[in-house]
Write a structure and sequence with these properties.
With about 280 residues, the chain is α/β, with parallel strands linked by helices. It has two domains: about 180 residues, Nucleotidyltransferase, domain 5 (2-Layer Sandwich), CATH 3.30.420; about 100 residues. It is built from ten helices and five strands; from the N terminus they run ααβββαββααααααα. It has a five-stranded mixed β-sheet. Strand 2 and strand 3 form a beta hairpin. The longest helix has 28 residues. The chain starts with a helix and ends with a helix.
Length: about 280
């Protein structure tokens, strides 16, 4: 809800005359009380064996900023920054054994040594060719290539369930995708056309990062978890449009982190907020 709508809600239901500015100031002040809880979430992300990463645009006074999310099975951590680059992505440290699951944005490539790129993003890109096809044959060849690329992915998921995870299984499929794209034998490469080259470039730029999920049982082949966690923030963005101050923006990132984490853990957000504030204001646990 927007600050104005929250003000109207208090006035209509509780007969409390609270201005939108008071609502905004109150939410900003939460930043001073949520620092410790927010830091704990960051530390949990830093210790995780896998982290789903994603980002979306966020406005502050009409200027484009970026809302980043890092998600695990039990923890969600948001941060809002001015830039969308590798330095910003790497500011959230992860442990040496962590697997980063993300789309093919280059900013994530240095966040950890082990990477899993999202097959859902690849599928969406493949189904929406950017350029016109010059001939019907070129179109048929492209569709054939897309189908051939998705077949190993389907089989790989089945092998993971039936055979189990191993480094050898991952290497087998890494080799298979390179052979399919004609990288193992350039003379047999029959895939041509702008759309085909675009798809090949997208896959080869992240070479060795498409089948990491076959090596680790806890790694997913898609980044759907992070996208689901961002959905609530996208709705919030449509309603309130933007933040007016850096403090309000940082406070919102803290609140959103605690809120989404509580949903993952089947906890009541208002109770978590109440307990945290009560402890700090009264000194009682």
């Amino acid at each position: 809800m927007s600050d104005r709508k929250i003000s109207e809600l208090f006035s209509t239901i509780f007969s409390l005359d609270i201005s939108p500015a008071t609502v905004s100031n109150t939410l900003q002040r939460l930043k001073d009380y949520l620092k410790e809880d927010y830091k704990n979430l960051e530390e949990e992300i830093q210790k995780a064996l896998f982290v789903h990463r994603d980002e979306t645009g966020w406005q502050k006074n009409g200027k484009l900023n970026w809302l980043w999310v890092a998600s695990t099975a039990q923890t969600v951590y948001f941060q809002i920054t001015e830039k969308r680059n590798s330095e910003t992505a790497c500011s959230l440290k992860t442990n040496k054994d962590c697997v980063t699951i993300s789309d093919a944005l280059a900013a994530y490539n240095k966040t950890s040594k082990k990477q899993q790129k999202c097959w859902e993003h690849l599928s969406r890109l493949a189904k929406k060719p950017k350029h016109y096809f010059k001939t019907k044959k070129e179109k048929r060849d492209y569709e054939t290539l897309v189908e051939k690329i998705m077949q190993p992915f389907s089989q790989a998921k089945k092998d993971k369930r039936e055979i189990g995870c191993s480094k050898e299984l991952r290497q087998k499929y890494d080799t298979e995708i390179l052979t399919l794209l004609g990288e193992k034998n350039r003379r047999q490469n029959r895939w041509f056309g702008k759309n085909t080259l675009r798809l090949k470039k997208y896959i080869l730029k992240q070479q060795g990062k498409w089948f990491t999920f076959l090596e680790y049982p806890y790694v997913d082949p898609t980044n759907n978890r992070a996208e689901r966690d961002l959905r609530h923030e996208v709705l919030k963005r449509k309603i309130s449009q933007q933040n007016r101050s850096t403090k309000h923006m940082q406070s919102y990132a803290m609140q959103a982190s605690l809120y989404m984490t509580s949903k993952h853990r089947n906890q009541q957000y208002y109770q978590i907020l109440h307990d945290s504030l009560t402890t700090q204001l009264t000194g009682k646990i």
